[in-house]
Amino acid sequence: MLNTAVNEVGAYLHCSRALAVFGAQGRPPEMAAEFCAAGVRATPGAQVVLLLSQMEKAQPDELGGLTLKASDSAILKEMGVSTALGVSLSDKETQSPQEC
Asked: Structure pTM?
């Protein structure tokens, strides 16, 4: 189901890649799926972990979006991505963060 969701989002947004990750902050992902446009290679797991650590350090905007730009992030340059947008979800009842 996660693969289908990330593929649909990536195709709809005409992204070069889209990544969905679930897991606790500060830990490696428990589950991940990636959409890659034609001619784009999948991201190695080590780069996904580095990207997550950068996203965790980003300051959320007024809607909770986490934005990274390649000019500020070496990992994005390595991945061939100019901008990354992330969202951190939290459990409604416990308010503990749930990475996504």
From this structure: 0.75
